[in-house]
Design brief:
The protein is about 25% helix and about 25% strand. It is an alpha+beta fold. The strands form 2 sheets. The protein has a 3-stranded antiparallel beta sheet with strand order 1-2-3, with no helix packed on it. The protein has a 3-stranded mixed beta sheet with strand order 4-5-6, covered by helices on one side. Helix 1 (about 50-75) crosses helix 2 (about 115-125).
């Protein structure tokens, strides 16, 4: 791969039986039932995962990790919150199939909006997931005020 050096390789993620089945990590660290969203004819439990939920979780985590690194490199320390919503759209260029869009919301405690925007823009340039979707997925980044939360938000699905 273009002179790149391997730094980390994840464990295998496995899905059995598609919608109505189960996705899990080979090392047993994570397991979840999978089902299509109700809007797409899915009949599984609302708590089941679907590709959009997995993508949102992975993108928000990756973006958050790179944001933390950039802040650390700049000597900044503050609580952060990155959320991602993945939307599915029809794709008129690929008859019968769909495309995704991603909306990221970024908040950093105690920082003004212009500084958060600068850090989010730089993070977007360096985030491996941002690089992977570049030119293939519409990604919108919105800066929001930081608000501490005691528990995770419910899914937008």
């Amino acid at each position: 791969m273009d002179g790149s050096q391997l730094l980390h390789r994840s464990v295998a993620a496995i899905t059995i039986d598609g919608p109505g089945g189960e996705s899990y990590l080979e090392d047993g660290a994570f397991s979840a039932p999978v089902a299509a969203p109700a809007e797409l004819g899915g009949t599984g439990p609302k708590t089941a995962f679907n590709p959009g939920r997995f993508l949102a979780l992975g993108y928000s985590t990756s973006f958050s990790f790179i944001l933390a690194k950039i802040m650390q490199d700049e000597g900044k320390s503050a609580r952060t919150r990155v959320s991602c919503i993945v939307s599915l759209f029809t794709d008129p260029m690929d008859e019968g199939f769909n495309k995704i869009g991603m909306d990221l919301e970024v908040a950093i405690e105690g920082m003004d909006e212009s500084e958060v925007q600068r850090l989010a823009d730089e993070t977007h340039v360096h985030c491996p997931v941002s690089k992977a979707v570049l030119g293939n997925v519409d990604v919108h980044i919105k800066i929001i005020p930081y608000k501490a939360e005691s528990k995770p938000l419910a899914s937008a699905d």
